[in-house]
Amino acid sequence: MYPNKTEIDLGSDRIVIEKRYRALSALNDLLIGIWFLAGSIMFFDDSLMTLGTGFFVVGSIELILRPIIKLTELIHVKRVTACG
């Protein structure tokens, strides 16, 4: 029976990789919230509505980045474990 490769303990190197991706993911989530909150506030003023729409577009792009960050983490960890 083979162990699940994503659960192989690589010591401090694996921990560093996980923390970097978690930090990137948390930062991305924070920015998504900021973009959507700012865009929502801008919708109260007609003169800022176009800019607010732009903020919603940026927030939507960052929502697409969420699974890309996760997939990159999984691929990176798999590549590191395959070499070790």
What this model shows, in words?
The protein is mostly helical and 84 residues long. The protein has 2 helices and no strands. The longest helix has 35 residues, at 49-83. Helix 1 (12-42) packs antiparallel against helix 2 (49-83). It is elongated, with a radius of gyration of 18 Å.
What structural class should be given to the helix and strand makeup? mainly alpha
Count of beta strands: 0
Termini separation = 19 Å
Order of helices and strands: HH
- Report helical residue fraction: over 70%
Q: Which residues sit in consecutive blocks of at least 5 with pLDDT less than 50?
A: 1-6
Search tags:
mainly alpha, 0% strand, disordered N terminus, elongated, 84 residues, 79% helix
Strand and helix layout:
Layout: H1 12-42, H2 49-83
Helix pairs in contact: 1-2
Question: Brief overview, please?
Answer:
By secondary structure, this protein is an all-alpha fold. It has helices at 12-42, 49-83.
